[in-house]
Amino acid sequence: MSVFLPRAGRIAIVGTSLVQQNHIGDHSFIGTSARGWMSWAEVLSHGRLACPVHHDPAIVPGWEPSNRAGGSRFFAGLNFGVSGQKAIEIERRLPRLLASDFDLIIVDAGTNDMMVETRQTIADTRDRIVKALLNAGKTVILLPILARGTQKWPAGGPERAKAHWINQHSRDFAARHANCHVFDWNDAWVDPESRFGEPRDGYSNDGTHFSVRGGFAVGSLLAGYLDHILPNAPDRVLSQDDCYDAADNPLGNLASELSASTSSEAGETSHRLGGELSHPGAGVWIEAICDMEVPSHGGIVGVSLRLRDAAEEGLESIALAPFRSEDGSPFPFPSQSWRGTLRTPPLKLKPGNKVPELHLDVILNTQAEPLRLDVAKIEVRPVPSPVRA
């Protein structure tokens, strides 16, 4: 088998809720989630990495979240995560997955098996999943079993020992197979001072899944890791005269303003970006993208780019949609500075002539200091339909 460089813009991810939760949606919106490690890897790579998805309310047997019949993930694309699934259920979904167009895939499997299957059964199923993907010509990034808090895996319990054995098995497996690699998300996740290998404080909302800060930490590590595997992508270069024109430049920028400075006070603030957007017509798919630099600030609980179809029953598409607790309060963002590129999933414009809108939504704690953000390279563009024929 030959070794090749996969496309940076077609990264697939498959697994459990740890994968599915990178994206979120319902009947009215689609978004990348601020708790998502792949979401943050895309942002912190400055748009170089992409795991494209689009709104899709279809109900697909075998793909229902948490095995609840009749449920939808509300998105399709290259996120193949389904919450609640065991490794064997992930393996059964491979034929549908392999009908999609991608070169590289990140694999999570086995975390939901730990309390009911033997270590060998879990390792064998993981091996079969990876071999099927390798045999299909894909580059595979294998994720170890993610450590859990003691409220989920008791201290000193068999799950922790099994996880260490499986993870060593995965490293040995990858060393023997071309185009197979291991990315250890535990490096960013586990508290090295913890006797039982628990997640770092504030990285998880429940001892199993990611909070925003946990997703940021793993996404930052993943962006750097993939930088050594994927080819360089060209920088985004914007020209002020690259404007949408239905006849001569139908893929031109719909935004009339390419940069903005915003100032937000405590609470929730929405800033209109891009000036007055052009309308490319009903049925056209569009997406938004911008660069920003966020300073060190302890009070941020949300920074989202939101593209809105203003037509009746129009959808919203959000980059870094806030992750909220059961009482509705959002989980905090990283307090350190960061810079990156926010890109919304594409949305299909509904019938009507109301121009789409672009917003930067900022949420600060009630006692937070004001936050100034500079937004650059604002684009809202028509894109090819992401729906496979």
Identify the notable features of this structure and list them briefly:
389 residues; alpha/beta; 6-stranded mixed beta sheet; 5-stranded parallel beta sheet; 8 helices; globular; SGNH_hydro_sf; EC 3.1.-.-; Ester_Hydrolysis_Enzymes; SGNH/GDSL hydrolase family protein; hydrolase
Task: Write up this protein.
This protein has 389 residues and is α/β, with parallel strands linked by helices. It contains 8 helices and 18 strands. The model has no long low-confidence stretch (mean pLDDT 96). Helices cover 20% and strands 25% of the residues. The strands form 4 sheets. The protein has a 6-stranded mixed beta sheet with strand order 2-3-14-13-17-11, with no helix packed on it. Helix 2 crosses helix 8 (212-226) and helix 5 (119-135) packs parallel to helix 6. The protein has helices spanning 17-20, 37-44, 87-92, 94-97, 119-135, 158-175, 186-189, 212-226; strands spanning 11-15, 23-25, 29-33, 53-55, 75-77, 79-81, 104-107, 139-142, 180-182, 260-264, 267-273, 285-294, 300-308, 316-321, 338-343, 347-348, 357-364, 371-383. The two termini are 30 Å apart. Strand 2 (23-25) and strand 3 form a beta hairpin.
